[in-house]
Amino acid sequence: MEEILSLIFRGCNLTRDLESKLPSLTNNPSLLASSCDDIVRAFSRASDLLKAQGPPQPPPPPELEAGGVQEWLTTSHTQAMAVAMLALDPFQGQLFSDKNPFDVRLLTTREAEGGSSSSVRARGGGELQGGEGSDAGKSPVTQQRSRKRKDGEERHTIRAAAPRIGNTEIPPDDGFTWRKYGQKEILGSRFPRSYYRCTHKSFYGCNARKQVQRLDDDPNTFEVTYCGHHTCLMSSPTSSMPPPQPPVATTTGPEPPLEVEATQHPLPTSPPTRRRHSMELESDTPTELGLRMPGSFNVAGSVSLSTTAATTTQAPGPSEPSQPARDGREVEWPVADLADVMFNSGSSSSEMDLFFGPM
DNA sequence: TCCATTTGACCGAG
DNA sequence: CTCGGTCAAATGGA
Question: Protein A137 CA to nucleic acid C7 C1', in Å?
Answer without folding.
Answer: 15
